[in-house]
Amino acid sequence: MSRETFKPKILIIGCGLAGLSLAAILEHAKIPYELFDKAKELRPLGSAISIGPAVMPMFTQLGIMEQVQAKGKLMTESFLTNEKLELLTHLDFHTEAVERPALQGILLSLIPKHKIHLNKRVLSFCETGEGVMIRTSDNKTHHGNILVGADGPYSSVRQTMYQKMDKEGKLPSVDKKPFKYSTICLVGQTYPLDEATYAHVEDDVCRYEMVICDDRPLCCCTFTTAEKTVCWMVFEILDQESNDKNDNFRSTEWGPEAAESMCNQVRNLRLRENLVLGDLIDKTPKNVICKVMLEEKIFKSWVYGRTVLIGDGNDLHGQVLRKVMHNMPLKLWHLVRDEVSAYRPQISFLPLVEDRGTKGPAKQPSLKKTQV
Ligand SMILES: Cc1cc2nc3c(=O)[nH]c(=O)nc-3n(C[C@H](O)[C@H](O)[C@H](O)COP(=O)(O)OP(=O)(O)OC[C@H]3O[C@@H](n4cnc5c(N)ncnc54)[C@H](O)[C@@H]3O)c2cc1C
Fold it and tell me: Where is each FAD-binding domain found (predicted)?
């Protein structure tokens, strides 16, 4: 096969939103790939995700932006208050609030089932001249040309890749430092509510509210969805002591089991006149509540040899939340919003779509390279 027609086979480890998004792109571009996940089934977990300008062009290229809009609700403003319900900040922007499980479903619908291999924990991998080989927990091996670690914040692909880089003296010192676990996030989604129970739940646009506590390192965000449900997320910023207490949680699986005691701790958080978080928790099916750790690190090294890291395996968040909790001034909010909305990358090997921003997008080096 000539160099021009050769298509590398991609092995993707992890069927989270990052792995599924990449698989959808490769499917669209007719590039061979296979997905592997240690989970026995892909559970629709989580609350709402905001789909902003950074992913809108990609979803348009994949032909799913209309589906996402149909499942989502336009979000044009947010209201930030303290627990006394005094308004701290009101911010305007333009994103789509979509239930995380709905987004997972849309991405999954683009990927043929036979390319997804569940119950396959990847134990090790190695590079073999022309390609890569992975060994999975069922003692099988799989071969490809490029390995993508989309295996989440505790990425074993990243750990193995970094060990190799370190041995060869190529790991930057910043990537040798352990990452900080800065934030715990508890998420859930109520069953459909009516206007009398939760005002604005039937509005055409998403009602996004954030309550920041004065005396506890907690904040809570609520979004209304197209299905008339309320997605809620509580963030607890950890200090050293609370960080140590949560040490065991890191090594456990995500799921409803881990969430119950945190639900009890945050029940009395005041969201509106006559409404506390406990009221929403009680209207949420137990099996969709989950507890997630957010960390604070952007790794510098994301590619080495034939191995690439994407998603939370490479980029961990928490920093912005920490600033929010310290009452970020409006000017800074605007700066973040403008920076984030200027970042509108397109998949350089698919036909490009019209950029719909009012200001030009930030430079995308990969686009330049592919076009050359
Ligand atoms: C349960 C959960 C709920 C969330 N809810 C929200 C939300 O409501 N709103 C929001 O904005 N963000 C939410 N987030 C955060 C956001 O969705 C993440 O930033 C995003 O999921 C990151 O995607 P990812 O694909 O990089 O990693 P993950 O979603 O963590 O996916 C990694 C995948 O890799 C698999 N894996 C790990 N190790 C191996 C291995 N050795 N072999 C094979 N497979 C492996 C895991 O089983 C997992 O399926 C949530 C995250 C999680 C995990």
Answer: 9-171
Residue 279, in any domain of the structure: yes
pLDDT at 316: 44
Percent of the chain's residues with pLDDT above 90 = 53
Query: Is 5 within a domain?
Result: no
Name every residue whose Cβ is closer than 8 Å to that of residue 253 and which is 6 or more positions away in sequence: none
What local confidence, expressed as pLDDT, does residue 12 receive? 98
Report how far residue 230's alpha carbon sits from residue 226's, in angstroms, rounded to the nearest whole number. 10
With a 6 A CB cut-off, is 111 part of the ligand 1 pocket? no
Report the CATH number at residue 294.
3.50.50.60
- Specify the amino acid at residue 176: K
For atom 37 of ligand 1, the residue with the nearest CA is: 151
Domain limits at 59?
10-363
Whose alpha carbon is nearest atom 8 of ligand 1? 47
What does the chain come to in residues?
A: 372
**Lookup: tokens for 81:** 């208050």
More confident residue, 183 or 8: 8
- Please provide the DSSP assignment of 198-254 as one string: STTTTSSS--EEEEE-SSSSEEEEEEE-TTS-EEEEEEEE--HHHHHHTGGGGGSPP
**Distance from first CA to last CA of the chain, Å, rounded?**
23
What residue's CA is closest to ligand 1, atom 2? 46
Q: Give the count of domains, the chain.
A: 1
Q: What does the pLDDT look like over 121-158, one tens digit per residue?
A: 999 999 988 899 999 999 999 999 999 999 988 899 99
Q: Would residue 371 count as lying in a domain?
A: no
**What pTM does this model have?**
0.86
The span from the CA of 146 to the CA of 295, in Å, is 27
Residue 370 lies in a domain: no
Report the separation in Å between the CA atom of 71 and the middle of ligand 1, taken as the mean of its atom positions.
21
Centroid of ligand 1 to alpha carbon of 46 (angstroms) = 10
Cβ of residue 311 lying under 6 Å from some atom of ligand 1:
yes
| Position 314 confidence tier, pLDDT thresholds 50, 70, 90 | low
Q: Which residues pair with 117 in a beta bridge?
A: 36
Task: Return the higher-pLDDT residue of 217 and 198.
Answer: 198
